[in-house]
Design a protein that fits this description.
176 residues; alpha+beta; 8-stranded mixed sheet; 8 strands
Length: 176
């Protein structure tokens, strides 16, 4: 992992750098076929495979692990991925299945977007989702992202050829 990320705080979570022990917390979710349905790849088959992917030293993105301050357990992974334009980044997130529908993604993405538009001084943040991933699409819309378009047959994935929604949020639109 090339980027050491700054620690971010929310009411319930500490967003921090990924650590070797985090893989075990994500494996039950990322090895689950239903949880990985809307990803561009299928479930991970082993802890070793997942750890290699999560902590790939050649990946040029920024990764935060959201750790629940009450339990110390990692509950989400959030990313900021460089774009061709240094004032633009892609974002993404995954919440472990035992903590979904608990407001984790909203709370942590709010902190990350504050950081991206504040400290990082980005002009634009964007996300790419499967049109059928209703919870993720609803979250992005509620955070102020605009659905800017649908790319037809954009990805060939483990569940077939899929469209993509492209969501965008501008610094001047962010209401953090």
């Amino acid at each position: 992992m090339k980027h050491i990320v700054p620690t971010l705080e929310t009411a319930r979570f500490t967003l921090r750098n990924i650590e070797p022990g985090d893989t075990a917390h994500f494996l039950p979710t990322m090895a689950d076929e239903e949880q990985m349905r809307w990803w561009s790849r299928g479930p991970f088959e082993s802890a070793e495979e997942l750890d290699g992917w999560l902590r790939d030293p050649d990946w040029d993105g920024h990764c935060w692990i959201a750790e629940d301050r009450a339990t110390g357990a990692p509950v989400a992974r959030l990313v900021a991925i460089p774009d061709d334009d240094p004032a633009v980044m892609e974002t993404g997130y995954l919440v472990v299945k035992t903590r979904q529908h608990d407001g984790v993604a909203r709370e942590c993405m709010t902190a990350l977007l504050d950081h991206m538009f504040g400290t990082m001084e980005l002009r634009r943040v964007w996300a790419d989702t499967d049109p059928d991933n209703t919870p993720s699409n609803r979250l992005l819309e509620s955070l102020g992202f605009a659905c800017e378009g649908r790319l037809r047959e954009q990805w060939e994935t483990h569940i077939g050829v899929r469209d993509s929604f492209i969501w965008g949020l501008l610094a001047r639109e962010w209401r953090g």
